[in-house]
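re: that chain from earlier
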Amino acid sequence: MRTRAKICGITRIEDIHSVVHAGADAIGFVFFPPSPRSVTAEQAKVLIQQVPAYVQTVGLFVNASADDIQHILKDVPLDVLQFHGDETPEQCRDIAEQVGRRWYKAIQIKPDLDVVATIQSYQQAGASAVLLDAWHPELKGGTGHSFDWSQFPKLDIPLILAGGLKPDNVEDAIKTTNAYAVDVSGGVESAKGIKDQQLIEQFMQGVHRGSAKY
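^ sequence. v structure.
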């Protein structure tokens, strides 16, 4: 099965068209105002209308309440929630139940983190997947940094690789980790929040090469 790919931090209609044309499986919208890639509900409402069927839409939230997320969902019919803050497994489960969406959790690979136990705690709470990202003391994703891919575990839950991925390393990343999916943002940008069509296409070509079984 080909490794799935999500392009995150979309802010422009033309970038949606580029992502869809390149064959990505999912498009991510960031609802976290400190991020340079953040969009409002009003902006996302316009953008999501350009996403065709069979391409999933994911909303990234950082320590948002169920009410905050429900307010977004009134105008933006997201398929999946990505919790990217300090949410506990119980908080993720409760919020998802309240708003009626599937969800997954992003985990930053801190030096002293028990990665497997942390993943399993979210899996037991009902996560559809877990995303593993590079750790940064201040930033919540979009750091441009990667972690040691040899730490990538093999578990019975879909695992998504993020952090420092680019067109020139995604093939190797997939072959090293055998990740279910990869998630990229800054690695396919010409500026923060501005995607580059050529880089997106090159990234997806790398995904296909990395997924090929010889």
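The first strand starts at residue 4 and ends at 7.
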